[in-house]
Amino acid sequence: MTICKRVIRCFLLISTFISVLTAQQSFWNQLNISINTTIYAITVTAQGNIFAGTANGVFCSFDAGATWSVRSSGLPYGADVGTIASDMAGNVYAGIYSYGVYMLKSDDTVWSEMKSGLTKTNIRSVAVHPVKQNVYVGTSNSGSFLWRKGDTSWSVMDTSLSDIHVQCFLLDTLNNLIFAGTWSGIFRSSNEGETWERLGSTTSFLVTTLAITSQGVLFAGSSNVGIFRSTDNGMQWTPKNTAMFDSLVSNLVVNAKDIIYTSTSMGVFFSTNNGDTWISITGTMGRVNYLTLDAGHYLYAGTQSGTMYRSKISTTTGVEAGSMGAVSGFALYQNYPNPFNPVTVISYSLPVETAVRLAVIDAMGREIEVLVNGRRDAGLHRVTFDAARVASGIYFYRITAGMYATAKKLVVIK
Description:
The strands form 9 sheets. The chain has a 4-stranded antiparallel beta sheet with strand order 1-28-27-26, with no helix packed on it. A 4-stranded antiparallel beta sheet has the order 2-3-4-5, with no helix packed on it. It has 1 helix and 35 strands. It is 6% helix and 44% strand.
């Protein structure tokens, strides 16, 4: 009887493991990239182009990951691209340790070095403000630098930052704040880095990544002691990790529904309750170095072995990429980013083919621009709105599709 119980228990454990693994695998689609080199970072432009920073240059896809090509012309030979970011115009910025920062314009195929004013080249992080379009760079022993939109050189922004090892940035666009994760804790600036304030009891660990929810809840990942959370603007921090997180946390991202995703040395996890509990979606991907979300909130994962994955469904809408049957009804989604300057992405879904009219209107109800006017297939659709010609303020975007009609608010900040 005892042997029989043990056999049944083993069978149940194996069945549970297989079920969990199958569920995790069903979350991901592997993209058609196999480059046999480590993927360190990923950015997906507002136009949907995917760029991967790797241990051997940059690879890109202009067809949602179906085909890939090397895009390293102008970069140092064998460039170790540890960080990569993009702005709303589709320009891409690559940070290369020991070489500096390079920019690839959206209409170009050759990278150009952003050298003027950058006194050190040991780049650890690159971030782009989605509204101001400013570029921020952190280094491993020389502080941080800022390239404002329209400038022709870098300016130092760490005169009062006591830690010169800047590992990551978090840009809080709603409150106009910059957070810097360093080797000795977290700092915050409300004036574009002119002055900095150390936050809370975070001096005991190296901060590798930062994220914030729409409700202002802050998360910090560390190099060896897991994930921390703050609900009081960073003044107090509490650990939000199980034993499996007492290791490297390489990335934290938050979607529009405040679901938090993290990549760690123990796998990929998500939380729907502000980090109180975590669920694994690792599957068989192996070591994941980086996570990012695109404008439609599909989740991307880049691995140590050079493979890349994308979530089968949008993490906010539940719409399957490329699938018509997955859409259960009409929907208009919140634009991203919002507020913005000057470009944002608007998504909508259709359960059937129908005539669609999508227009931006001002507070007086006058049409500013018609974005869509014609028949569209069933499925998820995205369209870009460029507000370069309109003034700062509150506007609305309104959709009419068959008998369905609704509108949402967007905010232009210049």
